[in-house]
Amino acid sequence: MARTRIPVVSGWFTGDGDTAGEDAERSFRLxxxxxxxxxxxxxxxxxxxCRNPGCRGGELVExxxxxxxxxxxxxxxxxxxxxxYVSDPAVEWRPYTLVAVELEAERMVVLGQAAPGVTVAxxxxxxxxxxxxxxxxxxxxxxxxxxxxxxxxxx
Length: 155
Prior knowledge:
globular; mainly beta; 9 strands; 1 helix; three-stranded antiparallel beta sheet
């Protein structure tokens, strides 16, 4: 029986990661909103009013954000985060890597977890990374999807 795939936050990224492989990665995008009046872009998305204090406001339109950007900062999490983060205390804790990425076109910084296997030793400020579909948690019935940052292969 197929498990239900649920985005961790609805409307923050395309798809639910239900397809695998390179096609899913190429089509995966974070979603923001752009103010039609001042062109300010927001992520997390803004659906009620423009957050630009110098703007009188305009229609907010959903826009796909850049697939890639440059590492602005990074760190490792060496602690088990508190609730509401899902973490089984019976399972051995493994550190994770957080990456702040300045998106190419939008020139805004978006925080996210690095893809599995990517450690702080693999990252450098200014390095190019791309957004890919990820899994935050899963059980027998449900897979909760999210986004990850992964270094761009420069072969």
